[in-house]
């Protein structure tokens, strides 16, 4: 982002305090006292872990300083950073509270035999306060080990060196870096190592190769081509083809000859009868009387013949 120091002063100072606590800035931050305890315990029980933790602490202090310099110093490198403004009190108040404890919380457990600060902690009655607060909840062996407690030069010196060294290296490398938005990262001289780190140890590519691409292949090949198009669509298409052929069979074998042609035959018969009987509908009364007289004579003739047994 860049350039946020003057635009967001409360966020800047609380971020610096939190960053220094994370880096383990000696004596005045809670991060130093917690990190010192961790280094002390690993130094006593697991020297290899102690070395790894020391290296990790050095890198933590370096990249935290780098983050502070990149985010809050130099010119804005994004449109959002150019128009940024301080957050409302609902955001800054928790930041101030957290920043306060990022400094003071570690004072509650300063060892009483720690040079200089132990005497101050004793006078303020805060030495091992947190330890005593949890004393009833600890296992006996943990309590016995804590009683031996104390101060050792090597872990303390290591904590000081990695914290101050990481902060100093980060400041030296990035103090003039990216004052302009188009400046290159000072660590780019590392070449492939920088690219490897910039790509987050290639974890995204590894994740893509291990999970994303197999998932895409499975969804495209197995789910889509084999199951969807091959099995499901194949079944549906087969049913559709059978239904289509049955439809043609019933259309040609029943609907057209029985329903359609039968109706047509009835209509043609009705038309023939209409045309046949239409000739007697002349509209002349004489013709109707002649037909009626002829019909009466025929009925009379039939009656006479039946009467005499001739029919």
Overview of this protein structure:
By secondary structure, this protein is mainly α. Among the domains are: 9-185, no CATH class; 280-311. Helix content is 73%, strand content 0%. The chain is built from twelve helices and no strands. Helix 2 (30-45) packs across helix 9 (153-174). The chain is rod-shaped and about 160 Å long. The model has no long low-confidence stretch (mean pLDDT 82).
Q: How do the strands and helices of this protein lay out in sequence?
A:
Blueprint: H1 9-23, H2 30-45, H3 47-72, H4 79-82, H5 89-104, H6 117-123, H7 129-133, H8 140-148, H9 153-174, H10 192-198, H11 203-278, H12 285-307
Condensed summary:
By secondary structure, the chain is mainly α.
Strand content: under 5%
Mean pLDDT: 82
**End-to-end C-alpha gap:** 124 Å
The count of β-strands is 0
**H and E string:** HHHHHHHHHHHH
**Biggest pleated sheet:** none
Tell me the overall shape: rod-shaped
Labels describing this entry:
311 residues; mainly alpha
């Amino acid at each position: 982002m860049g350039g946020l120091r003057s635009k967001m002063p409360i966020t800047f100072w609380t971020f610096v305090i939190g960053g220094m606590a994370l880096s383990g800035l000696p004596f005045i931050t809670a991060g130093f006292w917690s990190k010192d305890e961790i280094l002390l315990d690993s130094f006593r029980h697991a020297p290899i872990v102690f070395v790894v933790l020391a290296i990790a602490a050095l890198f933590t202090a370096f990249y935290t300083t780098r983050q502070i310099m990149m985010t809050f110093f130099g010119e804005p490198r994004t449109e959002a950073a150019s128009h940024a403004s301080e957050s409302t009190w609902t955001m800054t108040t928790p930041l101030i509270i957290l920043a306060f404890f990022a400094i003071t919380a570690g004072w509650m457990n300063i060892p009483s035999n720690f040079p200089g600060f132990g005497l101050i902690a004793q006078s303020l009655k805060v030495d091992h306060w947190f330890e005593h607060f949890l004393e009833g909840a600890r296992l006996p062996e943990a309590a016995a080990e804590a009683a031996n407690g104390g101060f050792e030069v090597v872990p303390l010196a290591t904590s000081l060196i990695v914290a101050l060294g990481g902060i100093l290296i980060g400041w030296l490398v990035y103090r003039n870096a990216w004052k302009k938005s188009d400046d290159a990262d000072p660590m780019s001289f590392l070449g492939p190592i920088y690219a490897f780190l910039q790509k987050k140890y290639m974890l995204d590519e590894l994740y893509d190769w291990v999970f994303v691409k197999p998932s895409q292949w499975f969804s495209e090949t197995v789910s889509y081509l084999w199951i969807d198009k091959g099995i499901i669509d194949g079944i549906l298409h087969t049913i559709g083809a059978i239904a289509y052929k049955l439809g043609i069979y019933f259309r040609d074998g029943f609907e057209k000859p029985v329903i359609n042609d039968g109706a047509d035959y009835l209509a043609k018969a009705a038309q023939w009868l209409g045309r046949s009987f239409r000739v007697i509908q002349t509209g002349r009364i004489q013709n109707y009387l002649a037909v009626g007289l002829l019909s009466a004579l025929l009925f009379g003739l039939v009656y006479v013949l039946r009467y005499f047994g001739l029919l």
